[in-house]
Records
---
Amino acid sequence: MSNSEIPTREDLVGRASEVAPLLGDHAAWSEENRRLHDKSVDALADAGVFRLRVPRRHGGYEADTRTLVDVATELGRADGSAAWTASVYWIPTWMTCLFPESVQDEVFSTPDVRVCGTLSPTGTATPADGGVVVNGKWGFITGAWHSQWQEVIAVLLDPNGEPAPIMALVPMSDLKIVDDWHTSGLKGTGSVSTVADNVFVPHDRVMPLGAVVQGSHASPANADSPIYRAPLLPVAAASSVGTVVGLAVAAQEAFFERLPGRKITYTAYDDQREAPLTHLQVGEASMKVDEARFHAHRLADLVDAKGVDGSPWSIEERALARADLGAVCRRAKEAVDIFATASGGSSIYSDVPIQRIRRDVDAVNLHALMHPNTNAELHGRVLCGLPPNTLYI
């Protein structure tokens, strides 16, 4: 694919904006049915959302992370579950691009292929002739219902060596889906569990997790591309934050849409806009939305700049990437909480979007990788001159 055929960031954000109304129309259905509506998935595919991290030679766009942030923000304004699902697909898709070309040829032969996955090593693998045999169960597998492949993390139990985590690519047809996604937030993501029962995975679809975390390649074709040079965790962080910014923007827009003519019940204010409390609330919350966007863009710009210049990542930069991720989540949640609190008792009805937005942003903030406190502690630990106490940096 030539550069002239690659959509610009503005084009891709525009496409996301165009499909947003359809996503919004199906958000309630997705919540009720605990997975994205097929029409939402088709609309995302038509907009090219699933191609953003696919190599150009396979019809993809090789979009930078700033584009991911801005596209996910537009999607998140309409439906947090749709945006989160798209964002999660971007991460295992990027990880697929570290595998040998033969594996990429197989995976990307499916147009608009969707790869789901996890970073949790809740499976085991044992050596077998020509590969490994995987067993285990993985939870929180966003978008599993609409995926063709899953990236799984397992601990390789090699009798001739120390146990070590690996990443493997497995067709969804080899896995069992457990329909256990009954949650309070991000209900439409369909983040069910999956199970492998003696699944054989050939060697070429297995990589050491340590190499993946460091961004090491078995793919010479992608090794020099700026978007595939970064380590995994900064990439995952930058891939995720746009959805969170979008939820904050969605809360802001939902609040102002209902504001004109709203009373503050049991007070003398016949118009909420006249109350000084409202001025303080919207002033503070709107600044927090801006702060969330700042941290998201700073994170993306760091990942993109280092991908272009190819310089090594310091431990301080890796910790800062996690810190920015946590800061986006914290600021967005604070903004949503203020707008929701100011929205009155009628906002708890299920047809008022801000109650769903609040539940979605709460769910994001509880995610193990996204949690603001976890990320702040890691950043502070590194700033104090101590080594990180996690592989996920």
---
Amino acid sequence: MNERFEVIVVGGGMVGAAVACALGHGGVRVALLDKAEPARQWPPVPLDIRVSALTRASRLMLEQLGAWPGMARRDVSAYREMRVFDARGGGELHFDCADTEYNELGHIVENRVTVAALWDVLSTLDSVVCITPAKVAEMETDAEGVRLRLDNGQIFAADLVIAADGHDSALRALAGIGVTGWDYGQHGLVATVSTELSHRATAWQRFLDEGPLAFLPLANGQCSIVWTLRSDTAKVYLALSDADFLAVLEQASAGLLGDMLAVGPRAAFPLRFQYANGYTAEHLALVGDAAHVMHPLAGQGANAGLLDAAAIAEIILETRREQRSLAGCSLLRRYERWRKGDNLIMMGSMDVLNRTFGIQSAELTGLRSAGMRVINHTELLKSYFNRYAMGLRDDLPSLAKGKPCW
């Protein structure tokens, strides 16, 4: 089989599926390649232990793509407040949607819910073809575009390929794009827990010596935890019995949500700071984790990836309306200029925060908590950080402003 498309998207997670949806709404002939078709329905328990804190900007984008109703039907959990504590220094931050014009600060959503709803939309778009299973073995480029050969011998051609295939991106490697980064020596331990006290639609985060412990509210009353730990500690905690783990978690939470009553399956994943040295190559653009991996302490990784998706889709559709070639390099240069700087600022901010809270000297601890108190009692500063966390920034793609780009 040798078929040509305008755009090929490799990777059908939330970022790749969002790109394909946006382009499909604009009538672009798209092939979406992934190793497997995602589940679209599942039993009510257990919940997916991988969740994302989606910002207001991400919700606006997903509404425009038509995915939000399918997500709401499967369950999303609005959080209306956020409370952040410095366990060592006593500093505290409190953000409340009552201080904004919105009814929530964001939503906690299982990753599988977002992906399933996007694939629901993809199934309705005539110009999009989803091809599974698909694994790219080779990539060739010339002046006309790019050809991908799969490991089963199939060949697909396009003007442009978008790599949304994760932090170990095979497409990035095939294009010869290197990465810069480092391991944190930390793992993020994730699980779903039941607590004595209600989460009160609040996202709780407590900064401890090894890293932050976050309780993210779920629609069924439980919480998803994301606990940053030294890698050796995470390994020990994964091996504990449920009862012993709950005891350790309860102590670490300092009673924020009362007794820890039950815990589901646990997993841990290594934390890394990583960025691609270039976001583009000939006829290729990187989006999401293929382009950048950041510390999860503020939950911005998925949102940054969705902004990548919105930006590249907007540029492609604008280029197409102007009847210019999608194989041209000006499209790629514009995308890299738009997204790389914003992502590096966000990544750098997360890195500095993680390192700052990891320093345990008495002097810095006092300064850190004093800074938190200043922000908490300065309306202008607090409003700025609140809106930034909600994704309401300048230079957003149209979709993230709640406007179609097709």
---
Amino acid sequence: MKGKRQKIYSLSVAGVLLIFLLASAYTTWNRLDPEYTCAQCHEIAPSHALWAGSAHAGVQCIQCHGTALSNGFHSLKEKSRMVWVHVFGDKYNDDIHLTETQVLELSQRCIECHQSEYAGWLSSGHAVNYEEIFMDSLHNTMEKPYWDCFRCHGMFYDGDIHTLMSLSGESPQEWTIRDERQKSRATMPCLACHQIHTENPVSDRYISMSDTTGKTIRHPSTAHYIRADKEYLRSDHLTRVKIIDDSLIVNSATDNNTLLCMQCHSPNFQRHAGSEDDRTPTGVHEGISCTSCHKPHSNDTRESCAQCHSSLTAEQVDAVYANPHGYKTLHNISK
């Protein structure tokens, strides 16, 4: 009997030591430079190379990606599946993409460092959820939801429009979102406009592609996620949209953020200024960048008028802001 107890005791001690050693080894693995751990695998090496030359180079992988134990059984199951696919699955680099759930979880980690940006986004029109977009009865009356809606609203959604919604019936009031949990999810999270792994040293200033001074180039921090290709295109590589006001070509801004905005805030197929979701400024504001008036994350414009029109009173700014043709009033006041 005594020998049996001694054996059980020895096995218990050995088990505790084994668990301790495994936990220590796993913790050490997560803390080491990924060049000698994760990046040894060909799937991770390109992302590591981009991360090493980015503004996030001082941020450890686990601060964004978490560990197998950071989110309880959910993360353990997820990491175990990744290891299984890596060892036994037939996968290629192009097959590795974040699911929408993972994108939203990652966005929550962005908030830990970018709290002011998050607060701005939360107060903006870009913080809308699936219910606000796809259950808008007024918009649905004019246009029935279809696959291209995801190009701007739900770039990371894993299904199609029929996976998301039941569109049976003629009336928009009959249409519903199938999954109740999907209703409150953000359609435009941080990663819709920001590519995390992108070569972008934080110490160098941004210089546009047209700059010929030969100075160090810092790439823009924004990029457009193309749902169809599941790839990012850096905002300064985006094509300028040709917009027509009556028969004249609008002289629109060409800075990287304006090019990014115009991917979703674009005109109709005839490229008429002000059609569809186009917000390109015309008249006295023609050629002005979006971010000259809109704060990058909150999109607020209330303080922008005074930057160029310092003589305006608060009451005049409010009057201009509330008037759809306020730019004409602003032009007359500024004379």
---
Amino acid sequence: MTGANGTGKSSLYRALRLLADSARNGAVSALAREGGLPSTLWAGPETIGKAVRAGEHPVQGTVRRGPVSLRLGFAGDDFGYAVDFGLPQPSTSAFALDPEIKREAVWAGPVLRPSSLLAERSGTALRIRDGGSWLSVHDAVATFDSMLSEYTDPRRAPELLTVRERIRSWRFYDHLRTDADAPARRPRIGTRTPVLAHDGADLAAALQTIREIGDRSALAAAVDAAFPGSELEIDAESGRFVLRLRQPGLLRPLGTAELSDGTLRYLLWVAALLTPRPPALLVLNEPETSLHPDVLRPLAGLILAGAARTQVVVVTHSRALVNALEHDAHELTTIELVKDLGETRIAGQGRFDQPAWHWPKR
């Protein structure tokens, strides 16, 4: 996923994170951190006419006709999920600004249809398909809770559990710190770490875990590809893991406190992408940050190695990284975002190129 600044790449990334938060019942608090529901709403007019698009009239505000709504969803070959957040009913509660979940739906296949619907919630009520009929559960979930996180019935609603666990496995990396005080630069008590922490604090333990139960040869090859002739050394001193990088021509290995920001960041991507426990979806936000152009080709190889085991979404500004991925990938979808009168659109996508999609109706 690429595009100029302000085209909507960060918005797409945050939308995916909000979807993941829904499965953990943290979407309402995540929305609050984003500035509340109003901050997520489209800032332009509800409709943009042909005359405006043709440049014959300026963009002007219009009266909103539809309900205030933030709708998020995704679909795959087997299941799809969508959620609709809206404004709460007038209340004297101290939490009167919290958005409510108006609708949720889980369905079979890539497109929501009445025949493919498996479970849906409207307000606090829940309906679950039970063979050829429907099972209704009243007051099953609160208005601020997701049915994915709060309703568990493996016999009657196994699809909800499947979708929930799939979304919960999604992994996001966008705050891998490499500054002087970064957690990854400090020795830490380590345990087996098949999944790198979001801030990279357990880097040494994660790399050692790859050595022991992951692809040890791929780890060595990834380090050598970026830093020819270099090798990792990981010491466990009284349970504290210490990472060092031995490089040609140096009499001693360099500790993480001595590594450059780019070197440390690349090692963090190695740990994230060679994880022995791949998620259902791995999302990387601007992985090229702090990296020298010569390291982008090895990074592309790392990303493709990760994509061989799971779906990887890369949000990037780097045309060099995109070119390297396109050169080496057997299967790659490149999406370029553009702005059209403030709207985020996909470059080259016409009206009839858009995939089929239907939102749950309120």
